From TrEMBL:
Transmembrane segments: none annotated. One of its GO terms (molecular function) is sequence-specific DNA binding. Residues 23-75 form the HTH lysR-type domain. Belongs to the LysR transcriptional regulatory family. The keyword Magnesium does not apply. InterPro entries: LysR-type_TF_proteobact-type (IPR058163), LysR_HTH_N (IPR000847), LysR_subst-bd (IPR005119), WH-like_DNA-bd_sf (IPR036388), WH_DNA-bd_sf (IPR036390). This is DNA-binding transcriptional LysR family regulator.
Length: 311
């Protein structure tokens, strides 16, 4: 192995030294007996291996290999060079491994995300956060049965913001719009006020507290009875069905902003209501947020505010 004597460590290094890749090429050629074998191992072309080899030979001032029937064999100079070169590579690998413990640990966040929120709002814009903070690793998980998943650093929730033991930051969702496909209005006629809804089928997702009764109350209508109610087990299907013209839906405006802008959905007569419920980012209240989570929270709030200001 390399000597660590004071005289060697204090001696000035030659001005020209082979590159690490050059040393790896020499060592690989010596083991394989060919440039092609070294090229395969190092994921280089044969011409690149040959160029690296010639560069090392020019620096040391001697040919390191000679060709015979079995391939490339080290010359006398090659034997003198290859052993120390291999020691250098081993020592370098050991040095890299030795400092691995001193590297700052990459921040990692584990987030529980509602599928509809992830699909329609978070994922389409998340690349901006990743570009701003490439040092933060983020893992997205779905809600699963209690006790079957690792604890999340933060959780996206839908509700009124009052979960026991949770610190909640409001994002968006209280602005709920009545939406319909243009084709639906063409078939059933225009909607000029809330009473016209009685002529239409409506789409409902019972687990989501965006009740039609809340809409009726907000619009001062006591007896809103639609033509029929079509219920879905997944909220994403409510939006899909609305786009397909199957009925009217109540949807947080931010989740269908693209469809409203593009005309695939419309907001008849501007009808909607201000809901008590919305989307929140929550975290355990019994521990302070990590710096990475603070960055994410601030970015999410800024995105939500910017989205509302752009309307």
């Amino acid at each position: 192995m390399l000597s660590e004597s004071p005289s060697l460590l204090s001696a000035p290094l030659p001005r020209r030294l082979p590159s690490t890749m050059g040393l790896r090429v020499v060592e690989a050629v010596a083991r394989h007996g060919s440039c092609s074998g070294a090229a395969d191992e190092l994921n280089l072309t044969q011409s690149a291996v040959s160029k690296q080899l010639r560069g090392v030979e020019q620096i040391v001032g001697a040919s390191l290999f000679a060709r015979n029937r079995r391939g490339l064999e080290p010359t006398e100079a090659g034997h003198a060079f290859i052993g120390p070169a291999r020691d250098v590579l081993v020592a370098l690998a050991s040095a890299v491994g030795g400092v691995a413990g001193f590297r700052p640990e990459q921040p990692m966040l584990r987030l529980h995300v509602l599928p509809i929120l992830g699909d329609r709002w978070l994922v389409p814009r998340f690349s901006r956060f990743a570009e701003e903070h490439p040092e933060i690793e983020v893992q997205f998980t779905n809600f699963v049965a209690h006790g079957t998943a690792e604890a999340a650093d933060a959780t996206f929730r839908f509700g009124e913001g009052d979960w026991p033991g949770q610190q909640a930051d409001y994002l968006f969702g209280r602005d709920v719009a009545l939406v319909a496909a243009p084709d639906l209005l063409a078939r059933f006629g225009p909607i000029r006020d809330v009473r016209d809804i009685a002529r239409f089928p409506v789409l409902d997702h019972p687990p989501t507290p965006l009740r039609w009764s809340e809409f009726a109350e907000a619009n001062a209508v006591a007896d809103l009875v639609p033509q029929r109610v079509i219920r879905f087990g997944f909220y994403a299907l409510v939006i899909r069905a609305a786009i397909a013209g199957q009925g009217l839906a109540l949807v947080p405006r931010a989740l269908v902003a693209e469809e409203l802008t593009g005309g695939r959905l419309v907001n008849p007569a501007g009808l909607g209501f201000r809901s008590r419920h919305g989307y929140w980012l929550t975290r355990p209240a019994d521990r302070p947020p990590s710096p990475a989570l603070v960055l994410l929270r601030d970015w999410l709030v800024a995105e939500a505010v910017g989205m509302q200001e752009a309307r």
